[in-house]
Amino acid sequence: MLLVGALALAPAAAAPAPGAIAAPVANVDRIGGSDRFATAVRVSETAFAGPVPVVFLANGLDYPDALSAAPVAAALGGPLLLTLPRTLPDLVVNELRRLAPETVVLVGSEAVVGAEVEAQVQALGLTTDRVAGPDRYATSRALIERYALPGSTLFIATGRNYPDALAAAAAAGAIDAPVLLVNGRTTALDPATAALIEARGTTTVHIAGSAGVVSAELELELSQRVGTVSRLAGRDRYETAVAIASETASEAGRAFVATGAGFADALSGAVLAAVEQAPLYLSGPTCLPRVAREAIVDRQNAERVTLLGSEGVLGPRVAALEACTTVADDRAASVAELTASLQLALRSLPGRYAVTVREHDGLETRVSINGAVVQEPVSVIKVFVAYGVLDRVERGQLALSTATRSGVSVADCLRVMIHTSDNLCHYDLVALLGPQALTTQLQAEGYRGTRYGGAAGTTVPYSEKTSTTDDLALLLERLEEGELLGPELTEHFMTLLETQLWRSKLPAGVERGVPVGNKTGSAWAPGGWFHSDAGIVSSPAGTYSIAVLGSQGATAAGVRTLGRVVFEHFTGPIGVAASYSDLNAVTTGSVTTYRYANTTEPVGTLAAGTRVEVYGSARTWYQLALPSGLVWVPSSALRNAHDYPRSTR
Questions:
Q1: CB atoms closer than 10 angstroms to residue 607
Q2: pTM assigned to the model
Q3: How far lies 502's CA from each of 387, 497, 499, 611, 643, in Å?
Q4: Parallel/antiparallel/unpaired status of strands 542-551 and 352-359
Q5: For residues 214 and 220, is the Cβ–Cβ distance under 8 A?
Q6: Residue 625: which H helix or E strand, with range?
Q7: Torsional class of 94: left (φ above 0), alpha (ψ -120 to 50), beta (otherwise)
Q8: How far apart are CA 481 and CA 649, in angstroms?
């Protein structure tokens, strides 16, 4: 556990890394606790002697409702403390006793800060007031309407993420101004937000973040409503924090630094920064972003720098005010940011998920959350089968024309196994390879969690197969990089993945027009359906592979959300998301439909060019969901209705 204290750093106190900027003579201290709740208490102990007029109490596991509370708390002379949703931590109980506030403001609904927590606070003899709305934006407005001091200046930040609003909270609190959250992706102010801006007599608005975070359309409307609108933004969260900090008095002798990859420490720390009228900067975990160091040391010439959080959050090089200078520094920041964003999303999603991301170029960011957990991979495992088959074709042991045990060729079975996730061809191909031979190959090539067992005496291993997201993401990276197969078969494999039909998960979590080659899957368990997906995303910022394996009720929307988090980490906010209709195929000519997957019982005819929904398959027969019911047609009678975006190599 880290204690509050000051550590004087002389130039020789820490040897800078090669190429790094040497640390100045400065006082650097740290306010940190064993966890986020303890850190918030340490900040409160530092800032407020007690008694205080008010304490704001917010959920420490999520950020939206608390973002607007920090500047209001600072203006009213009280701290922001954090709690678990259903239980008030003991050290927070003790801090409330010490502070003896006149009012404890519970920020958010009972779903966020539970009635149990309110009862614990009231049992201390304290008066409570709950401020809540139906969503984060309504809660932000309610906080401002009820508790913000009168004033004509307002900060506006997106409520869809936290870094910009955290930096804005300190700057706003320093001048007794509130931070109003908006949905930055919208192109017009909602009536309630517009009414609040007018009711406060707002003449100056500072927008925290770029147009990718708070839209240019919102900026234009604001400029038509108020006298002065300024946008405080940079290329990333660190530059944006510096731009926002410029609104705080540059003569401040103190600066605060919090992680840019988490919200909890900066939430409470922003109150102290505002009280001290000092800027709040954001940092990566291992070193101080160059733009932040230049602002603190060269422009502000801060005499004292306070780090918010433990060494596990802000490491020794940050404490030495050592600037980031290497790719490894940038990679560490990228990993920390993406990990934090995924973990935050996972808290609100139904079911359980394992996630692995591997950036193929650029910083080569690698993130694995439960990535080594061996579990049921559902149909996503078919990418390993496709690789095993194409590897044997590459080595001349099989040909695309080779017949499987059902008589369907290897080429056709590969196509339908990926195109519609056909299970029968999956079984045929595994039988052709041999489940043990496939498992032995995969184990030897480093896919340690991936294996086919198969039921005794059968060649249908459907119920006994395992994999991990680490294995899946690695295979897809090796495929895209051309490490598994020659150029011709690599292109063949990529074509299969980029033209498959099921697009509601990872392919729908990216910007429209971005190529995604993926293999999806779902299955039913006693607890209900669960969903998974793995794919290669060829984004404008570079290519990466992502694997998501769900369980215990994981949803398609949950997989899609995680995919979007990753895409936006690498490329910035999505403007127009990809979207695909369920009518995913079109007839290439007039085609007879059948009751079963054979030609013995025709039931009707579809005209050429008819859009249809492929619902299932039985090898090279596709089942269609028509308004009149389910029918079957040969797969050769259909083509994709969408021209899916394709990558180039």
A1: 9
A2: 0.87
A3: 20, 10, 9, 15, 13
A4: antiparallel
A5: no
A6: strand 621-626
A7: alpha
A8: 9
Give the span between the Cα atoms of 336 and 328, in whole angstroms. 12
Contact between 177 and 155 (Cβ < 8 Å):
yes
267: pLDDT strictly greater than 50: yes
Q: Which two tokens stand for residue 135?
A: 């969503």
State the pLDDT at residue 160: 87
Pull the structure tokens for residue 496: 């299969």
First to last CA, the chain: 50
CA distances from 202 to 149, 150, 174, 196 (A): 12, 10, 17, 9
Q: Which tokens go with 438?
A: 């496939």
Of all residues in the chain, the percent with pLDDT exceeding 90 is 87
Strands 153-158 and 127-131: unpaired
Structure-block tokens of residue 336: 């920390």
Cβ(417)–Cβ(389) under 8 Å? Answer: no
Task: Measure Cα distances from 285 to 238, 331, 336, 337, 366 in Å.
Answer: 12, 10, 7, 9, 15
79-88, 445-454, 590-599, 612-621 — which is least confidently predicted? 445-454
Helix (H, G, I), strand (E, B) or coil at 343: helix
Structural domains of the chain, with CATH:
5-325 (no CATH), 340-571 (3.40.710.10), 585-640 (2.30.30.40)
Rounded to whole angstroms, how far apart are CA atoms 569 and 563? 10
Which helix (H) or strand (E) element contains residue 9?
strand 5-9
Q: Could you count the other beta carbons within 10 Å of the beta carbon of residue 86?
A: 12
